[in-house]
């Protein structure tokens, strides 16, 4: 074969491959463009713009955690929100929007996420996150509180229960666990046949580790591949891609994309080895809500049902047609479940609000006149 012919064939192959890639890129862009042109009821929602009073909590190992306090300071109950893996405190947008006028709210970025400081890989564990939460409660929550955790944030709450059971019933009056697991995530089938899922799990850990070591290169690729990430998250993070707002998908994708690849790699082993089934007895001391999407493939409903089996007094809400990001996909249902939890907390601990106000006064958390006003309000509610 002549050199010219070989070059010609190589050029044709390269040209065909380039044309195929270009066609695929155009098709992808066309598909994303069509999705974005659909009517979008959430287009004007100020995602990522709701802000509270900034605070910094320095942990015992020297890590600075970023937090925000929102809502009235004199509210007798604080709600603390713990976000999920690869997200940040802004993921609670709808909950902040609907609760900030009534309750004192605390949002925080878990270590290595959002605006909180980075740490070495050996400090990226669920137990360490639980210790961080304990220190955050001590620094920012002087009275009684309710803890709400999504995904990894739910695991953080379980780690707190495992390490500090004395807080539950006294300081922590209620818990909501959203799209999370008490353990055995490494056994997920991901909707695949058993043998294939085992191979996927076997290959995932070293693959994630390699990506972590090449994080700078991977992050550049992630920044360039927004349309691909948009389409992938639209289908994998939400239960019904045809109804989810493109603005919501963009918002979630931007949070995930802002989480460095090496952080994703550092926390992956901790998620796979997470096992806090023994801590569920502690959570049974307080009213607990369990919420999960019925199409969640990351933390499937069976995991929430297992948590429910270990918490006989808990209430399980399985949200139809939703997946892992149920708090963004069906916020009204999630917020209704949170409202039910707050009602159960009030019914279970009618005197607890007054005790919490006393604690606020004793620790200097509220001026005396506010304490008196809150005491009158709480006593009227308790009666």
Output the keywords.
eight-stranded mixed sheet; 15 helices; 383 residues; 8 strands; disordered N terminus; alpha/beta; 12% strand; Rossmann fold
Structure in words:
- The chain has 383 residues and is of the alpha/beta class.
- The chain has a domain of 209 residues: Alpha/Beta hydrolase fold, catalytic domain (Rossmann fold, 3-Layer(aba) Sandwich).
- The chain has an eight-stranded mixed beta sheet with strand order 1-2-4-3-5-6-7-8, sandwiched between helices.
- Helix 7 packs across helix 8 and helix 14 packs antiparallel against helix 15.
- The termini are far apart.
- The N terminus and C terminus are likely disordered.
Explain the layout of strands and helices:
Blueprint lengths: L2 H34 L16 E6 L5 E7 L7 E5 L10 H7 L4 E5 L17 H15 L4 E6 L1 H12 L8 E7 L15 H20 L1 H10 L1 H11 L9 H13 L2 H13 L6 H4 L4 E6 L7 H10 L4 E5 L6 H4 L1 H18 L3 H11 L5 H15 L1
Parallel strand pairs: 3-4, 3-5, 5-6, 6-7, 7-8
Antiparallel strand pairs: 1-2, 2-4
Helix pairs in contact: 3-4, 5-9, 7-8, 14-15
């Amino acid at each position: 074969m002549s050199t010219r012919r070989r070059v010609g064939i190589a050029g044709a192959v390269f040209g065909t491959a380039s044309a195929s890639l270009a066609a695929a890129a155009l098709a992808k862009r066309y598909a994303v463009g069509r999705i974005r042109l659909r009517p979008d009821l959430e287009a004007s929602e100020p995602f990522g713009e709701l802000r509270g009073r900034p605070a910094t909590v320095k942990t015992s190992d020297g890590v600075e955690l970023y937090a925000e306090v929102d809502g009235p300071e004199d509210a007798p109950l604080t709600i603390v929100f713990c976000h999920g893996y690869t997200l940040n405190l802004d993921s609670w947008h709808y909950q902040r929007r609907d609760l900030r006028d009534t309750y004192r709210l605390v949002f925080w970025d878990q270590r290595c996420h959002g605006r909180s400081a980075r740490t070495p890989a050996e400090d990226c564990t669920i137990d360490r996150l639980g210790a961080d939460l304990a220190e955050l409660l001590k620094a920012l929550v002087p009275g009684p509180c309710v803890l709400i955790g999504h995904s990894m944030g739910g695991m953080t709450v379980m780690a707190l229960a495992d390490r500090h059971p004395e807080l539950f019933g006294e300081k922590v009056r209620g818990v909501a666990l959203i799209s999370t697991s008490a353990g055995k995530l490494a056994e997920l089938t991901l909707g695949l046949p058993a043998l294939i899922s085992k191979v996927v799990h076997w290959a995932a850990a070293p693959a994630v580790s390699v990506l972590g070591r090449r994080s700078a290169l991977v992050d550049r690729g992630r920044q360039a591949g927004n349309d691909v990430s948009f389409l992938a998250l639209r289908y994998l993070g939400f239960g019904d891609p045809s109804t989810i707002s493109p603005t919501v998908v963009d918002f979630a994708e931007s949070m995930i994309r802002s989480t460095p690849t090496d952080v994703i790699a550092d926390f992956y082993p901790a998620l796979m080895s997470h096992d806090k089934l023994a801590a569920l007895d502690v959570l049974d001391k307080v009213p607990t809500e369990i919420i999960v999407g019925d199409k969640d493939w990351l933390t499937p409903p069976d995991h929430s049902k297992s948590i429910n089996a270990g918490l006989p007094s808990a209430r399980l809400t399985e949200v139809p047609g939703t997946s892992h990001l149920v708090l963004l996909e069906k916020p009204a249902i999630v917020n209704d479940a949170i409202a039910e939890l707050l009602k159960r907390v009030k019914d279970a601990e009618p005197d607890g609000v007054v005790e919490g106000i006393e604690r606020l006064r004793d620790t200097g958390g509220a001026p005396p006149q506010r304490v008196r006003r809150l005491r009158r309000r709480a006593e009227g509610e308790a009666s």
